[in-house]
Amino acid sequence: GAVVSQHPSWVICKSGTSVKIECRSLDFQATTMFWYRQFPKQSLMLMATSNEGSKATYEQGVEKDKFLINHASLTLSTLTVTSAHPEDSSFYICSGRTSGTQQYFGPGTRLTVT
Amino acid sequence: GNSVTQMEGPVTLSEEAFLTINCTYTATGYPSLFWYVQYPGEGLQLLLKATKADDKGSNKGFEATYRKETTSFHLEKGSVQVSDSAVYFCALPDGSGNTGKLIFGQGTTLQVKP
Known about the structure:
The structure holds 2 protein chains of 2 kinds.
Chain A (H helix, E strand, L loop, with lengths): L3 E4 L2 E4 L5 E7 L6 E7 L5 E8 L5 E2 L8 E7 L2 E6 L8 E8 L6 E2 L3 E5 L1
Chain B lengths: L2 E4 L4 E4 L4 E3 L1 E4 L6 E6 L5 E7 L5 E4 L2 E4 L9 E3 L8 E8 L8 E3 L3 E6 L1
Parallel strand pairs in B: 2-12
Antiparallel strand pairs in B: 1-4, 3-9, 5-6, 5-10, 7-8, 8-9, 10-11, 10-12
């Protein structure tokens, strides 16, 4: 139980284009979803917290106009990287939680911007 | 807010060796503590957790005991296998109310050689 999927698992896009990453909770309702970014050999950096039906809360230093997060339902959240640039290349991981503190993580999406 | 510190890696061991990865924390109260594992190219998986002081979390031969006296949650395994090679993260809630946010340690890379 408590499975989170992400799609796509990897994506290559050209500089200046936008790319959308989906995060789905397959067997539970995620009242809160989190988006993280991970650079090689580093820890996870929380980008934003999204609650179903409300605007996402972004961490300090994260550009909300560049990283658009939508949490339209209890099982789906999307992260859109707008006007992507090579420095946006990274591993993006989402997680979902129902209540309490335990989070269930997706497998991650590898974004490469050329 | 809460914080967590992990021993720096990488840790390189031979198969069947004993493993310890140190984790210490600072926190208000006695929050749940977690160990997550990340295999190459994948998202995070919950390895084990402890929800109160003196609890021992265990899974797949790994153990960690919630020690409030030393504010530690060290991860141990008696006999590691090559398949245990991964990055291990210690984590706890950020302490800022019921946000569900987790604070992660910097991660410790474990490499097990045959």
